[in-house]
Write a structure and sequence with these properties.
By secondary structure, the chain is an alpha/beta fold. It contains 6 helices and 9 strands; from the N terminus they run E-E-H-E-E-H-E-H-E-H-E-H-E-E-H. It has a 7-stranded mixed sheet with strand order 1-2-3-4-5-6-7. A hairpin with a 6-residue loop joins strand 3 and strand 4. The longest helix has 9 residues, at 123-131. It is globular.
Length: 179
C-alpha cells in the first residue's frame, strides 16, 4: 500500500515478508493489496507504518513505528514480547487499552524527544500502558535505550556503564537495573 517509502524510492514490504532469518525479522504490517486491513493502511503515512517483530520467544521485540490504535486493533502480533516500541512516540492515538492488555509486553519503549512540540508521550498512552502492568522506558528521560534479545529473554544494555555493557548473564535482564 502507499506509504512514505515511495517518496524515497524504497522497496515496498507487506505482511508476511521475512527480512532476516536469524535473528528473525518479520513484517506484520502493512497488509498487501487486497488483504484485510488494506483500507486502514491507506488512511495515510502513519497507518501504513512498517510494523516489525524482531526475535523469537521471550527475546522478542515488537516495533510499531507510527502505527496508531486503529492499526493495533487489527494487528496480529504474538503476545508477551520482551519489548514493545510504543506506536507513534506514545501519542494519545497509540497504545490502546485492549492492545496493551492483550499484548502484555514486559516493557514499553517510548521514543520521543524531551520538550518535543507534539507533547509526546501523551499522559493517556502512559496511563493505558501502566494500567496494563507494563514498565515504561522513555528516551525523553534517559536518552538512548539499548536492548539485546536472546533465547533467554531481553536484556537492557547499560551502555553508559562500561562494566555493564558487556555483561551477558541474566542478572541484567529486563526488570533489573544497575544501581
Amino acid at each position: 500500500v502507499p506509504g512514505p517509502g515511495r517518496r524515497f524510492h524504497a522497496h515496498s514490504l507487506g505482511r508476511g515478508d521475512i527480512l532476516r532469518a536469524a535473528p528473525s525479522i518479520r513484517v506484520l504490517w502493512p497488509p498487501r493489496v487486497g488483504e484485510p486491513g488494506e483500507a486502514i493502511a491507506r488512511r495515510g503515512d502513519n497507518a501504513a507504518s512498517l510494523v516489525l517483530e524482531v526475535g523469537e520467544g521471550r527475546g522478542r521485540a515488537l516495533l510499531t513505528a507510527d502505527a496508531d490504535s486503529v492499526v493495533e486493533d487489527v494487528l496480529q502480533a504474538t503476545p508477551r514480547p520482551g519489548v514493545l516500541k510504543a506506536g507513534h512516540h506514545g501519542s494519545a492515538s497509540s497504545s490502546g487499552v485492549a492492545f496493551a492488555r492483550a499484548l502484555a509486553p514486559r516493557v514499553a519503549l517510548l521514543s520521543c524527544g524531551r520538550h518535543n512540540a507534539y507533547g509526546h508521550p501523551s499522559p493517556l498512552a502512559l496511563a493505558r500502558l501502566s494500567a496494563a502492568g507494563v514498565r515504561l522506558d522513555r528516551t525523553d528521560r534517559v536518552g538512548t535505550l539499548w536492548y539485546e534479545g536472546s533465547a533467554e529473554g531481553m536484556r537492557e544494555v547499560l551502555w553508559r556503564e562500561p562494566a555493564m555493557a558487556r555483561r551477558a548473564d541474566p542478572v541484567s535482564r529486563i526488570g533489573a537495573r544497575a544501581p
